[in-house]
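Colleagues,

For the teaching module next term, I've prepared a clean inverse folding example: a structure given as tokens, and then the sequence designed for it. I'd like students to try predicting residues themselves before seeing the answer, so please don't circulate the second half yet.
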């Protein structure tokens, strides 16, 4: 099986990991699938319908879920939507992976099976927590983080916040969030999702 190298990143479909400069980068499983699809069809404008069919085949989601996924992937890759190096929006159509130097190579772990999850004691990159905190804040009812906000809480935000916590490793995420706003909301969200 192949893996894809681009810039300082390596994407391994076999191991289901994104690596940046030798360190695994947490990515929600559906976002991983979206990035993989765009890389597999790089240079091609992938229609939103094709993305929904492959990445969200088992659920019905809105266009905003796709937009949020692309925003998160761009942030993870350090990309800018105004001057994209990796993912370009194709107006009224979908998205295109535009980085010109993608290298396909044999994945050394192809015969070894998937890599087990990293131990909870490994530190995730600090930048991984900013989108998580933002998502938890939007998903949390009535807490100090929502002071002055009105309107219903988006269930998609709640689901994706829980998925991000799970992807980062529950214990590590809670350890890192312990001193930051949103910790209590993160615990409640994990209890609700039965991941605590």
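(Answer key — instructors only)
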């Amino acid at each position: 099986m192949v893996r894809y190298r681009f810039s300082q990143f390596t994407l391994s479909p076999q191991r289901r990991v994104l690596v940046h400069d030798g360190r695994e980068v947490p990515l929600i499983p559906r976002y991983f699938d979206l990035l993989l699809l765009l890389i597999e069809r790089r240079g091609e404008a992938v229609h939103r319908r094709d993305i929904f069919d492959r990445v969200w085949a088992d659920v019905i989601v809105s266009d905003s879920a796709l937009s949020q996924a692309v925003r998160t992937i761009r942030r993870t890759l350090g990309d800018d939507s105004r001057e994209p190096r990796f993912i370009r929006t194709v107006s009224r159509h979908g998205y295109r992976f535009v980085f010109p130097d993608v290298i396909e190579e044999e994945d050394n772990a192809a015969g070894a099976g998937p890599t087990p999850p990293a131990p909870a004691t490994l530190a995730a990159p600090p930048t991984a927590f900013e989108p998580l905190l933002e998502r938890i804040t939007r998903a949390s009812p009535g807490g100090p983080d929502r002071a002055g906000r009105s309107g219903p809480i988006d269930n998609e935000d709640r689901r994706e916040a829980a998925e991000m916590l799970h992807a980062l490793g529950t214990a590590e995420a809670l350890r890192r969030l312990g001193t930051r706003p949103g910790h209590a909301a993160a615990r409640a969200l994990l209890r609700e999702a039965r991941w605590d």
